[in-house]
Specification:
Length: 189
């Protein structure tokens, strides 16, 4: 199909399957709305930044294995999602929302983010890097959001078990960048 037909068909299918534009959860790992995910994965990644992504996903496996440029494009999408979007956008927003609901301050949210980010991203990457490699290389655009929603249901349970309890933190002390890096590497300062 023509690119405009593919785009409109992808939006209609994603909207039908997920209720795009509605929040998939009020709190937790799924707090990013389906509409934001649709924009990120289908519009920004697949149309603007990586226009060959939809064509690569539609290829038969044999052709994908021979298409090195397409494989690199998949890795670039996963990198942007997992190593830029989630650590520097999603998790800070997650902690701000959590603290807002619990009556905490933005400073408390920031301190909790800094305290937990290393463990959070390692957990995230252990699940989502393989999931998104599959998603960006196999799923057609219309299936990206329903696939992410399916996996997100389990990931949300995991995040809730890790971060769901109200957590107190001493806001009178602050961890600097060097202490954070040392703690992340397991080095005592």
């Amino acid at each position: 199909p023509a690119p405009t037909t593919l785009r409109s068909a992808g939006w209609k299918a994603a909207k039908r399957s997920t209720g795009a534009g509605t929040s998939s959860s009020s709190l937790g790992a799924s707090s990013t709305s389906d509409g934001v995910q649709y924009f990120l994965y289908c519009k920004l990644f697949a149309e603007r930044l990586f226009p060959s992504a939809a064509a690569f996903a539609a290829k038969p496996l044999r052709d994908k294995l021979a298409d090195r440029v397409g494989q690199v494009t998949v890795v670039k999408q996963v990198f942007l999602d997992q190593f830029v979007h989630h650590p520097f956008v999603f998790f800070p927003l997650f902690y701000q929302l959590k603290e807002s609901i619990e009556g905490g301050s933005p400073q408390e949210a920031w301190l909790k983010y800094r305290k937990n980010v290393a463990e959070d991203v390692l957990t995230l990457w252990s699940i989502w890097v393989p999931v998104q490699l599959f998603n960006f290389s196999v799923c057609p655009l219309w299936m990206r959001i329903p696939f992410v929603a399916l996996v997100s249901s389990g990931y949300t349970c995991l995040m809730s078990s890790m971060r769901g309890a109200r957590e107190s933190i001493d806001v009178s002390t602050s961890v600097g960048v060097s202490e954070f890096v040392a703690a992340s590497a397991g080095v005592q300062t």
